[in-house]
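Shipment paperwork, digital attachment
Item: protein structure file
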Amino acid sequence: MLDVAVIEDPAAAEASLDPVRARLLAELRNPASAATVAARIGLPRQKVNYHLRELEKHGLVQLVEERRKGNVTERIMGAAARSFVISPAALPGVAPDPSLEPNRLSARWMLAVAARLVRDVGTLITGADRANKRLATFALDGELAFASAADRAAFIAELAASTARLVEKYHSATAGGGRNHRLVVALHPSVKPGADAPEPSQIAGSPGRTREQ
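Attachment content:
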């Protein structure tokens, strides 16, 4: 079972968003039969079987094993991954395009960049899986606290300058056989559990931010 799978097909995305099927995907992180899952979630087995067939058709669940019970063969199904991400490729007509409004201080532009990241990495993962090759990637993730908005603005300026120096040092536009890589650096307020929105001091009028979010 994969840790994360990317859904790129619109029909598969639609199938995964059905509340019952989303529940089945969660339940089948631990493989089980339709009868077992039906009893667990309180639905008729026939209804569960119907939804499982739809999920299997789109590759979201898969057959793990078959068990013979008397005159009946029980199919043990498992989710294709522990979790799923729907790629913007599933909505090609309305997928975010960061090039339309490149504003580094806009939270909505950051969201468009993140959406492109999901789309591109999903496409790369699909290609690497088909070729049975490893995909060379790297990511940083962490949290830090700033004493003031001024410190945050200074950090952003220093981060941008340091990144620019690294790019200038290692970027080679004429390297034969080289491959282009995309670099994404983002900074945003941490989301508190149960919080609906960041504090006002983290948005309007703060250094390094814009009022238009």
